[in-house]
Amino acid sequence: MASCINMLFGVFDFESIKDLQFSVAFYWIYMVVVSLVLMNMMLAIVLDAYDEVSKESYKKAANMKLANRVVTICGDVVSERSFTWKD
């Protein structure tokens, strides 16, 4: 397992395996697959964080719309009462 991690970080003696049968192919297949898996994990973390921030932003925007509507209605009610004609 330590050799696999060392291969991924580039701390590996490639010369020691290049003469073995199929070792170069396995090395490159491992490097490509692990790189794709790690990139997929990073992308999942970033997109999850983006989704969470997006949901919070939507909630704040909806709350602001509601607050603005309430203020508008209250303002309309107050202005109607102040301009009513007294008989």
Automatic annotation (TrEMBL):
InterPro entries: PKD1_2_channel (IPR013122). It is found in: Membrane. Pfam families: PKD_channel (PF08016). Its main location: membrane. The chain crosses the membrane at residues 27-50. Keywords: Membrane, Transmembrane, Transmembrane helix. It is a multi-pass membrane protein. One of its GO terms (cellular component) is membrane. Residues 3-53 form the Polycystin cation channel PKD1/PKD2 domain. This is Polycystin cation channel PKD1/PKD2 domain-containing protein. It comes from Phytophthora nicotianae P10297.
